[in-house]
Write a structure and sequence with these properties.
485 residues; mainly alpha; two-stranded antiparallel sheet; 67% helix; elongated
């Protein structure tokens, strides 16, 4: 074991001491021995004089400290996973948080000294040289996963904050992307250099933290900086999204969506990238998993804005395009879907499609009509997300496709009246019931407006003895009040 006092009194060069520490950490035969070594290293860094720790005249200082950072990160590495699933039982990660805390303590002590010392060229360069490796380590233990606990996540967060501060940056995003003010490049390129060997199709599942580190880093980098790295981030994002596990698919789609939102359309369309993206995302629509569909549909909608001219533009010939292809498949799945969580996701996605397509939605009115009527008939209490969303979709359809609503007066009118009767007798929370009744009443008002008052005439003939007071009150609103804006 290292004797801190003897090392400080002996005045051995810091590079020699750090190499000895790295060797002992690498060769340690037990976890207890390794933890003790890291504790002693933390004391050494915290108690030594700054001129000895950061000697500007000594060669190899940067490389030695970088080796130390890599060795400390390996001390807290996750166990290698050899299975196709890419996951290990939670028991495999039991000792990881303790090791991560010990490594974080040493790195925090180092960065605290770097930040508090006189900012000469060496300490400044050291802070930036170590930043990529330390950031990868910190982010691996920053998020809520089976290999972290509250204490290890706190240490990782504090370490990342110290790295950002020592680099003179105001945020992690600035640390990754750099700043035009001082002309210094960010560390994202160096981080990708570290992650790239672990992100190919043969070994990206060997370390379960790798995909999460890549995703977290990626979403911190936004336009215009992200465009410079498109060639390097696009393949791993596609690879993760193409996995058989839903969790990985969702993670990959998050990455792809971030790329779509932060890379110019011209760069996305170059080398047919946007087409590749479209086919990958479209195929995900055949996977009946609510978490996946929930992220795929918004992603597809933003991608369609890149691939297609807006259907609402009157100057453009309104030919069938990918908007129609996606919506047709979504409506087909909606008609057959019986799982409530998927029905909620599908229903919530309709309004953005209707708004993007505008009057072109009339191409799909027959199928959309069947979906709306069937979804209004089935309750998904207690939250009623699906029925609230489908009422929003009906409202938007009435607004954009009003010229085609007169011939659908009977279908939508009967469906909404039946819906009012059902809701008035269901046991729901007052707030949810009021929302459902209010939205249905507004849809009836819009339907009456679209049919030039024909619905109002029919409602005036309703026999008051056949409906309860709640339904009659809603009918009076339709016959007496104009629709809201």
């Amino acid at each position: 074991m290292m004797d801190l006092r003897r090392i400080l009194e002996g005045r051995r060069p810091v590079t020699e001491v750090l190499r000895q520490i790295c060797g002992q950490l690498e060769s340690a035969t037990s976890s207890e021995h390794r933890l003790a070594l890291m504790g002693a290293t933390e004391q050494l860094i915290g108690g030594a004089d700054a001129p000895w720790l950061f000697p500007s005249s000594e060669s190899g200082v940067r490389g030695t400290y970088l080796d130390l950072a890599h060795v400390l990160a390996r001390c807290a590495d996750l166990p290698v996973c050899e299975s196709d699933s890419g996951t290990l039982p939670p028991s495999s990660y039991e000792d990881v948080p303790v090791r991560a805390q010990a490594a974080s303590a040493v790195l925090k002590a180092l960065y605290f000294r770097l930040g508090s010392s006189d900012r000469d060229e060496l300490t400044w360069d050291l802070a930036w040289t170590l930043a990529p490796a330390v950031c990868v380590f910190a982010v691996a233990h920053l998020q809520d996963h089976v290999w972290t606990n509250k204490a290890s996540r706190k240490d990782a967060f504090e370490l990342l904050a110290l790295v950002t501060q020592a680099g003179g940056c105001r945020s992690v995003s600035e640390l990754l992307c750099g700043s035009s003010a001082d002309g210094r490049d960010g560390v994202f390129k160096a981080i990708l250099d570290l992650l790239q060997p672990q992100l190919n199709k043969n070994n990206w599942k060997r370390n379960e933290a790798t995909k999460h580190v890549f995703t977290w880093m990626l979403v911190q980098v936004q336009r215009p900086c992200l465009t410079d790295y498109l060639v390097r981030i696009f393949p791993p994002s596609l690879l993760i999204s193409d996995d058989f596990r839903t969790e990985n698919k969702v993670l990959g789609v998050h990455c792809l969506h971030h790329i779509i939102l932060n890379v110019p359309a011209a760069d996305l369309c170059q080398f047919n990238r946007a087409q590749v993206l479209y086919h990958a995302l479209f195929n995900h629509l055949y996977t009946p998993e609510a978490p996946l569909i929930q992220v795929v549909l918004p992603c597809l909608l933003d991608l369609l804005c890149v691939l297609e001219n807006p259907p609402t533009q009157a100057r453009v010939l309104r030919k069938m395009n990918r908007y129609d292809e996606v919506l047709r498949l979504v409506l087909t799945h909606m008609e057959m879907e019986h799982k409530l969580d998927l029905r909620c996701v599908y229903a919530g996605s309709l309004v953005p499609f209707i708004e993007k397509m505008g009057i072109v939605i009339v191409r799909h009115l027959k199928r959309l009509e069947r979906v709306i009527v069937s979804y209004l008939e089935i309750s998904d209490s207690p939250e009623e997300k699906a029925r609230l969303s489908i009422l929003d979709a009906l409202e938007r359809t009435l607004q954009v496709a009003w010229p085609r609503m007169e011939c659908r007066l009977a279908v939508f009118g009967q469906s909404l009246l039946r819906f009012l009767c059902d809701v008035s007798m269901e046991t729901l929370s007052p707030d949810i019931k009021d929302k459902l009744l209010g939205k249905a009443t507004h849809c009836l008002q819009l339907l009456d407006f679209c049919t030039r008052g024909k619905l109002k005439v029919l409602l005036m003939e309703v026999d008051s003895s056949c409906a309860n007071d709640i339904v009659l009150q809603c009918i009076r609103k339709v016959t007496q009040e104009p629709p809201r804006e």
